[in-house]
Structure prediction request, 98 residues.
Amino acid sequence: MLEELTRKIEEAVSKKTAFGFNVRFDLDDGESIYVQAKSEPVKVSSAKDPADTVFKVSETNLDAMLDGKLSPMSAYITGKMKIEGDMSKAMQLSSLFG
Prediction:
C-alpha cells in the first residue's frame, strides 16, 4: 500500500508549485512519505528527514484523505491523524486531499 500512497501523493503534488516547506507523513507501520517542497522541483521519497510539518496517520486514513473520503480536518479532530510542527503550514496542505 505504501507504493500506492506514494504514487497518489506524487500525483497530487505534481499539480502544485513548491509550497516553501517540507512535509512528512509518518505511517503506523513505521514507513514515511517525505515531500521536499521548499523549492522546485517538488520531490516525494521515503526519506525520514526533518520536516516543517509531520502528519502521523494510518495508511488506511491517509488513503481515504487522498481519495476525498475523509477530510483532513475530520481526521485531526477525531484523532485519526496527529500533526507535529507548524499547524499553519499543515492547513495550507488541505488542497492536496480530495
Q: What stands out?
A: The chain has a mean pLDDT of 92. Residues 2-14 form the longest helix (13 residues).
